[in-house]
Structure formats: structure tokens, C-alpha cells
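Q: I have 76 residues here and want to know how they pack in 3D. Can you give me a structure?
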Amino acid sequence: MSWQGPDPSRTPGLEPGGGVPPGETPPGEGGTSAITHQEKGPAPKWVPWAVITALGVVVLMVALLMLVRVFLMASD
């Protein structure tokens, strides 16, 4: 079953034959009664935490390397 839009015989402002006189707003389009595509849900919640964790690991590794370098230079 398909919806054909507003009934021209009951729509105000239409001329005979379905035309719209100058200055009138044409009738709106018909709506849809069903969704024809799959809607996406929200993004998974683990994605931001994975990025934050990866950045934290990189920062800790750089900090450890800097500390090791400082201690190696101090022992010379």
C-alpha cells in the first residue's frame, strides 16, 4: 500500500486540475509510514577509553625513557 499524498478535492488553495495559484503555498509532501534503512545506534563506549589508555601508555613509556636517560647521564 502506498500513500498518494493529500486529497486534492479536500485541499484548500488548489485550482481545478491540482495547480496552485500565484501566492499560495503548495500542500506539503506526504510522510512515510516505515523506515526503509537501518539506523545506526550510538558508538561503542569502549572506543574513547581505548584511545585514552593508549595515549597514557605512550606517555608513561616516554617518561620512563627520560628517567632512565637522566639516571644514566648522572652515573657518568
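Q: Anything worth noting?
A: The chain has a mean pLDDT of 76. The radius of gyration is 33 Å.
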